[in-house]
Backbone:
């Protein structure tokens, strides 16, 4: 993470308090700073000493049993991987900042360690292949209203960097649907498989552009079975600005906006080779219904 992330997550946004604490942690050899180009954000990481201290005090007890050399390697990742992880942290910081200002909601968990929540699920296709899925993040938001039982909101986060083809995104979405409908997620939350409807979740898919968002919404509608409401789509700029605002769409909302037009999702493309659809994107922007994640259904 960066110092800005640390300030939001741990120091109530106070930059000076963050700076002083980070200086002490660096002086103690518990955290380090990656050497990067001067114009790029400074990135903090746990040193071997920091990891050893956490391990000694039992703070890593609930995490996968990885050796110290493996954990230490996490400080040496490619620039592409690093940028992706920083963007995930940007989203986490934005959610933390927004939810803490929005009672009666509270973030119970926002894990960015994929190994903690990876799962096996069937993806769409003629063979129904079982594949491993490693979410970018798992989010658990608890809603507490006086006199009522707490209500849990569950989300998986996927931050897209426009590197994967649409088919890969569609397969991942179908795997999430299977994870829900098979009851495997309900089992992971301590319920019988048959009670899967009592533990719904949504997949938050964050894209670089509205064009990429719209392309994915169209492709998910053409899945078999189609993904209509489980996936919530938005852009990175919107999510890091106001994650709880009316910025999200489901494929169903895209379908409603384009129904009966030249861009109707039922008119399947002959191929998914990239081509711009400026008029389509303008139409969707003018007609699509956006919603807020934690707002009551309209």
Residues:
């Amino acid at each position: 993470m960066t110092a800005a992330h640390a300030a939001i997550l741990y120091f109530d946004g106070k930059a000076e308090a963050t700076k002083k604490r980070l200086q002490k942690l660096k002086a103690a050899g518990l955290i380090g700073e990656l050497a990067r180009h001067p114009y790029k954000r400074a990135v903090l990481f746990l040193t071997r000493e920091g990891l050893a201290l956490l391990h000694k005090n039992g703070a890593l007890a609930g995490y996968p049993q990885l050796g110290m050399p493996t954990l230490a390697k996490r400080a040496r990742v490619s620039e592409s991987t690093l940028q992706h992880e920083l963007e995930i942290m940007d989203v986490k910081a934005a959610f933390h900042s927004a939810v803490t200002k929005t009672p009666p909601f509270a973030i119970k968990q926002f894990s960015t360690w994929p190994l903690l929540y990876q799962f096996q699920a069937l993806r769409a296709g003629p063979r129904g292949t079982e594949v491993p899925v490693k979410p970018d993040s798992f989010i658990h938001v608890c809603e507490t209203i006086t006199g009522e039982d707490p209500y849990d909101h569950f989300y998986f986060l996927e931050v897209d960097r426009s590197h994967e083809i649409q088919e890969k995104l569609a397969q991942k979405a179908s795997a999430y649907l299977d994870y829900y409908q098979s009851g495997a997620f309900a089992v992971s939350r301590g319920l019988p498989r048959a009670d899967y409807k009592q533990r719904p979740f949504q997949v938050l898919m964050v894209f670089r552009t509205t064009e990429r968002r719209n392309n994915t919404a169209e492709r998910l509608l053409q899945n078999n079975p189609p993904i209509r409401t489980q996936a919530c789509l938005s852009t990175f700029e919107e999510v890091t600005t106001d994650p709880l605002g009316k910025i999200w769409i489901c494929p169903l909302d895209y379908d409603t906006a384009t129904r009966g037009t030249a861009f109707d999702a039922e008119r399947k493309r002959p191929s998914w080779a990239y081509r711009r659809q400026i008029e389509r994107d303008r139409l969707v922007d003018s007609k699509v219904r956006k919603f807020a994640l934690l707002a009551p259904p309209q």
Observations:
- Residues 14 and 223 are 46 Å apart (CA to CA).
- The radius of gyration is 21 Å.
